[in-house]
Design a protein that fits this description.
alpha+beta, Heat Shock Protein 90, 8 strands, five-stranded mixed beta sheet, single chain, about 55% helix, three-stranded antiparallel beta sheet, transmembrane, cell membrane, about 325 residues, transmembrane helix, about 15% strand, elongated
């Protein structure tokens, strides 16, 4: 609309310049005043009508989908309109892809939770059942619910973080305590070789990341083995003694829904644990890597910025 007004303004200014020229001629040649007044009055309304018609006609032309621009103004408006349509379509496709991804999340986690409930139903059907077999199943169901909620939170997470200096050993020990039902069921024991390290990070999301990596290590470690927590060069290492990952699968372990040949993900059915951990790590300026050890097992690494690490003395 602004472009159309500029064009109309040019025409109006031209009209008034023409009237000014006529006024000058009237003054120089001493023409009758009524002649000039009649000329202005009789020409004003046709000019205003023509300007209004031109604006309406131009607006109607710009509404056409197959418009062929005739002026520089129409060319610019057509270009901007086409760009706006492309941007709108791109945003619409992104929204549709996000909706499909969220539906896939819900479907995967609902499947896992349903499996846990069916397992609980089978256990409770027995006349006498101890509480120990129920704990890992209940933990798995609760964990999948937490993953589903955190997946939704990560979609809208921007800068709602609370960075503080955290004792890394204490944080890892808290994670191990929360995973006690799984570790006891697998007869695994933790080994801490971190030292007196403090890191500047968000407690909630760092705990979430470490929980996914430790759960991954616990789930695929043979019974009776050790899960080691080590520290080297600004990097937290979580080392298991499981089967490892096929070399062809390593580049894809952080993809959404990828399970790989060994199913080396947080849950075999969803394949979302490592993906969500990677998404959370990116939000708080961390880097995750997963490498095969030369002997056996996997070494999951959390890389911290050097400025976010502080070594303390006893």
């Amino acid at each position: 609309m602004r472009k159309w007004c500029k064009e109309a303004a040019r025409l109006t200014i031209g009209y008034w310049l023409l009237l000014g020229l006529l006024a000058l001629l009237w003054y120089v040649y001493r023409l009758p005043g009524t002649l000039f007044a009649d000329l202005v009055w009789n020409s004003l309304w046709p000019v205003l009508g023509w300007v209004a018609w031109w604006l309406w006609h131009t607006k109607q032309r710009l509404k056409q989908t197959n418009l062929i621009p005739r002026t520089l103004v129409e060319t610019e408006l057509t270009r901007r309109l086409a760009q706006a349509k492309r941007d709108h379509r791109h945003q619409l496709l992104q929204l549709q892809a996000r909706q499909r991804q969220e539906l896939d999340y819900v479907d995967r986690f609902a499947h896992e939770i349903k499996n846990a409930l069916m397992a609980l139903e089978g256990l409770t059907a027995q006349p006498t059942v101890a509480s120990a077999p129920l704990k890992p199943v209940l933990y798995q169901a609760n964990r999948n619910l937490d993953l589903l909620l955190n997946a939704e939170r990560l979609q809208f997470l921007t800068n709602d973080f609370a960075f503080e200096w955290l004792d890394l050993t204490a944080l890892c020990q808290t994670v191990v305590q929360s995973l006690a039902p799984l570790m006891i069921a697998q007869q695994l024991r933790p080994q801490f070789a971190i030292g007196n390290v403090k890191v500047l990070s968000d407690r909630k999301w760092l705990t979430f990341i470490v929980t996914q990596l430790v759960t991954n290590a616990v789930k695929y470690s043979p019974p009776g083995r050790v899960v080691t927590f080590a520290w080297q060069a600004s990097t937290l290492q979580i080392i298991d003694q499981g089967p490892g990952v096929a070399p062809s699968d390593l580049p894809r372990v952080f993809e959404a829904g990828f399970t790989g040949q060994n199913g080396h993900q947080t849950t075999r059915a969803t394949g979302m644990g490592l993906y969500l951990a990677q998404q959370a790590a990116t939000k708080i300026n961390l880097t995750l890597t997963l490498v095969n050890r030369q002997t056996h097992g996997i070494k999951a690494e959390v890389h911290f910025p050097a400025a976010h690490v502080k070594l303390t003395k006893l």
